[in-house]
Design a protein that fits this description.
The protein has two domains: about 250 residues, Rossmann fold; about 60 residues, Sun protein, domain 3 (Alpha-Beta Plaits, 2-Layer Sandwich), CATH 3.30.70.1170. It is built from eleven helices and 15 strands. Helices cover about 30% and strands about 20% of the residues. The mean pLDDT is about 95. The strands form three sheets. Strands 5, 6, 7, 8, 9, 10, 11, 14 and 15 form a nine-stranded mixed sheet that branches. The protein has a four-stranded antiparallel sheet with strand order 2-3-1-4. Strands 12-13 form a two-stranded antiparallel ribbon. A hairpin with a 5-residue loop joins strand 2 and strand 3. The structure holds S-adenosylmethionine. The site of S-adenosylmethionine (SAM) has 19 residues, from helix 6 and strand 6. Keywords: Methyltransferase, RNA-binding, S-adenosyl-L-methionine, Transferase.
């Protein structure tokens, strides 16, 4: 009797269906909080100096599990890093580790031309810019006006005013900007999603807007944005498709659709170097739906005290298509 279940019961059932014997682990994790995590903007200050300042203000800080990441373990009166002047002045940047991991998988390198298709608030864009140190090769697209300008402000405060920002719908970008279509070495497709990976039962606000009907609806937009990312990518280029959600419809099903549609698209194995038990392979079978086996190369990041729930697929547009893409 689905209709008599509370929203929370529906959510728990969904996690059981997706994660099977790992569901209890996930449920335990989201019943507790997650640490605040951050990275230091080396354009503005040296790491040791920043850590010294934070420790002087009685933050207990430790290195995080990803290179360049730090964890706020505790602080005086529960003060957050995001409330400090160091954050306000762009010296430190508060960012979830799963979000950082999405960029690590893309592995941006100096000299590469990189497109971030759904970019606001610019957390991943600025991280990409910090890793390549060539912001003039980084393009950030965002369609929502308010979010577009807050992203610009955010990039500016971190010292990345040279990132090329485009206020546009990601869908149909290749028609609007033919001059840059098919020219990117790497594309990040961090789509709008149902945000289930950020749910913590200890924080009511994080669950308030959960709607079991959203995943199916939003997956249509996600497919269009992924197709746009494919068009912008040059042959041989790499693309990360990521969400901060658990829904099969928004994750594996979208990637499966893209693999069917674009014959020259392939999945690349993800190597993260982080402790194994936070990762599981992408699903290739869900409620009787059998998908392309290559989707097992995608990763689901399980939530814990450090990470939020996340999905990452790494795709490569091959140098020459095996046969023309299906219409
Ligand atoms: C998951 S958030 C991106 C977070 C961002 N990548 C970061 O790490 O800071 C998705 C973003 O996509 C934007 N968006 C939604 N639909 C879009 C579209 N059709 N074209 C471009 N951006 C879109 C949303 O406004 C939102 O800012």
């Amino acid at each position: 009797m689905e209709n008599n279940l509370t929203k929370r019961e529906l959510f728990v059932n969904k996690l059981n269906e997706i994660f099977g014997d790992k569901a209890e682990y996930v449920l335990n994790a989201i019943s507790g909080p997650r640490y605040e995590t951050f990275r230091i903007n080396s354009k503005k200050s040296g790491v040791d100096k920043v850590l010294e300042k934070l420790r002087e203000t009685e933050f207990e800080i430790t290195e995080g599990p990803l290179a360049g990441s730090f964890v706020n373990l505790s602080s005086l009166h529960g003060l957050k890093i995001s409330q400090t002047n160091l954050f306000k002045n762009g010296v430190v940047y508060v960012q979830g580790l799963s979000s950082m991991l999405g960029v690590n998988v893309l592995d941006p390198k100096p000299g590469e031309k990189i497109l971030d298709l759904c970019a606001s608030p610019g957390s991943k864009t600025s991280y990409i810019a910090s890793l390549t140190d060539e912001p003039e090769n980084i393009y950030a697209v965002e369609n929502n006006s308010t979010r577009f300008y807050s992203m610009k402000k955010n990039l500016l405060s971190q010292g990345y005013s040279h990132v090329i920002t485009i206020k546009s719908n990601a869908v149909g970008l290749s028609t609007r900007y033919p001059q840059i279509c098919g020219t990117f070495d790497k594309v990040l497709v961090d789509v709008p999603c149902s945000n289930e990976g950020n749910v913590r039962f200890s924080d009511e606000g994080s669950f308030k807007f959960w709607n079991p009907k959203l995943p199916k609806k939003i997956s249509m937009l996600q497919k269009k944005i992924l197709a746009s990312g494919y068009n912008m990518l040059k042959p041989g280029g790499l693309m990360v498709y990521s969400t901060c959600t658990y829904s099969f419809e928004e994750n594996e099903a979208v990637v499966n659709w893209a693999l069917k549609k674009f014959s020259d698209l392939d999945m690349v194995e993800i190597k993260t170097g982080i402790k194994k038990f936070t990762l599981v392979q992408g699903l290739t079978l869900h409620k009787g739906d059998k998908l392309d086996e290559r989707i097992s190369r995608a990763s689901r990041i399980l939530p814990d005290k450090y990470f939020d729930g996340f999905f990452i697929a790494l795709l490569r547009k091959q140098l020459s298509p095996a046969y023309p893409a299906r219409k």
